[in-house]
Amino acid sequence: MSIILSSTSQGLLWAIMAIGVYLTFRILDIADLTAEGSFPLGAAVCAQLLVNGWSPLWATLAAMLAGVLAGWVSGLLHTVLKIPALLTGILTMTALYSINLRIMGKANVNIQMNDTLITWLTDTGLSKNNAVLVLGIIAVTIVITILYLFFNTEFGLSIRATGNNEEMSRANGIKTGVMRVIGYMLSNGLIALSGALMMQNNGYADINMGIGTIVIGLASIIIGEVIFPKITLGKRLVMIVIGAIIYRLIIAAVLELGVAPTDLKLFSAIILTICLSAPLVRTKLLAFILPSKERKV
Amino acid sequence: MEKVLELKKVHKTFEVGTPNENHVLKGIDLTIHQGDFVTIIGGNGAGKSTLLNIIAGNFPVDEGTISLKGQEVTKKKMEARSKEIGRVFQDPRTGTATGLTIEENLALALRRGKHKRLFKMGIRKTEKEFFKEQLKRLELNLENRLKSEVGLLSGGQRQALTLLMATLVTPQLLLLDEHTAALDPKTSASVLALTNQVVAESQLTTFMITHNMEDALKYGNRLIMLHDGKIVVDVAREEKADLSVSDLLTLFHKNSGESLTDDSLLLA
Ligand SMILES: Nc1ncnc2c1ncn2[C@@H]1O[C@H](COP(=O)(O)OP(=O)(O)OP(=O)(O)O)[C@@H](O)[C@H]1O
Ligand SMILES: [Mg+2]
Q1: How confident is the model at residue A295 (pLDDT cuts 50, 70, 90)?
Q2: Which ranges form a coiled coil (chain A) (predicted)?
Q3: What is the pLDDT of residue B261?
Q4: N or C, which terminus of chain B has less Cβ within 10 Å?
Q5: In this model, does residue B182 exceed pLDDT 70?
Q6: What is the pLDDT of residues A98-151, one digit of tens each?
Q7: Any idea which architecture B1-84+171-185+205-268 has in CATH?
Q8: Which CATH fold topology does A2-296 show?
Q9: pLDDT at A297 (0 to 100)
């Protein structure tokens, strides 16, 4: 029971990062690795500000803004300097490693003595686990609501069109370069926000906490897509959250089975590989089960 | 009559400075007036699509100027020119955002060339009725499928939808690049008929590339033949109306000094 509860609350915090990854990876059709740097960036900024006495709310928002800036840099590298997306992400993520170290001043910043969004909630009498759960639900609800509304505005529609068909978008007067940069900024803002929340959950920021971020994000997205391949944007965002929770549950199960925590990254990669191959496996299975005439896929 | 489009001495060379250097447009002078329906033919690689692309702003010209409605746009990007220009492409996948729904595509088309605002709903309720009415004109039953993803439509349906999108906001200039070439003969004929109808209804100034000489003669009031980066035939009005395929071949021979008999592609 407690494993389910903690997986759910952790999943909610990770889900915000996964939604960020979704914005670039699926909506803009860009493979952006900036996440590996912007996630710990959010944690670093938030931790350092908390240590310096900032209010948890402002520290968290500032962390998000730092992510937006990181996304802006990646966006410009990609759209103005025309550097391929994959390389852009690698460049920013590498640069961010140094920047994060500078922000933190050392490899690890402890905030256990400081007020956080979570201690605000535990102060009202909630247990730590429940506090994280409540925080996760509030944060995820706000993020999904805002994104849902945003992507149904003229502006949001233009961003979706840009990722879907650049030529058509330009022929309809959409400034696709600007749309991409804004997508990068939104995406990394969310990823940094997730980093800041996760850091408050962990009680410390660590320079290496970004490693594997992209794998977790993709796994959450793809688990959701395997369950429901074709759904509208609003439902998709909810499915990513469910995907992120399922992913945490799988990880918890793997740990229960006695896998060493140091082997977790290996298992993350294996889980993602399985998810990625699922559509193919499904097609093959259907082909095998159904006679060729009834086949739909 | 008002000039809609004016090209002066336009040159375009691809891959400058490489062994593949390719001088595609060699000094094009062309003026199109309000209400003209120009068909354009020419062999493969003659530069027809390139001509359309430089008008739309896909890439810059090397020399010469382009004016739309008396305004020079030579240096303007495609996004900036889109306000004036409606387009249907050869590939049915190019003209629509296939991952978006029919109504979302139409909503984007309705805002062609306009500033996209953050606090305005992408699709307003009142617009849906308008979209339905417009879709009815296509007679493809799409008016009941506003929420269908465009990726689910057939090639012909998509081209008809793209044509509707290109003309939803009346364009100063409609550019059609072999927009029925990827369709089967029957669908192709019906999309062409629809095109002709839409163009006639709104008196659209139109520039249509085709590979089919019969179509080039049948539609429009002016015919241009492009050969080796130059305009070699340009006939309009009565002169065009009286033209037959064999007249056209003779004219081509006279003006270009080359024979067309072996250029089977042009006749296809
Ligand atoms: N973006 C580009 N980059 C490099 N070369 C190009 C580009 N676009 C066209 N070309 C070249 O320019 C020449 C003319 O091409 P274009 O597409 O204009 O011909 P076309 O008359 O439309 O032919 P078709 O009837 O086959 O469509 C071709 O040799 C083509 O390879
Ligand atoms: Mg062409």
Answers
A1: very low
A2: none
A3: 52
A4: N
A5: yes
A6: 999 999 999 999 999 999 999 999 999 999 999 999 999 999 999 999 999 999
A7: 3-Layer(aba) Sandwich (3.40)
A8: ABC transporter involved in vitamin B12 uptake, BtuC (1.10.3470)
A9: 39
What is the per-residue pLDDT for B139? 87
Q: What is the mean pLDDT of residues B44-70?
A: 93
Report the chain A residue with the minimal C-alpha distance to residue B99. A164
Nearest to A154 among B77, B100, B111 (CB): B111
Name all residues whose Cβ lies below 6 A of ligand 1. B 14-15, 22, 24, 42, 44-50
Q: Which residue has the tokens 């929420």?
A: B147
Which atom of ligand 1 has the smallest separation from the CA of B59? Answer: 1
Q: CA-CA distance, B187 to B157, in Å (whole number)? A: 9
In this prediction, the answer to ipTM > 0.95 reads: no
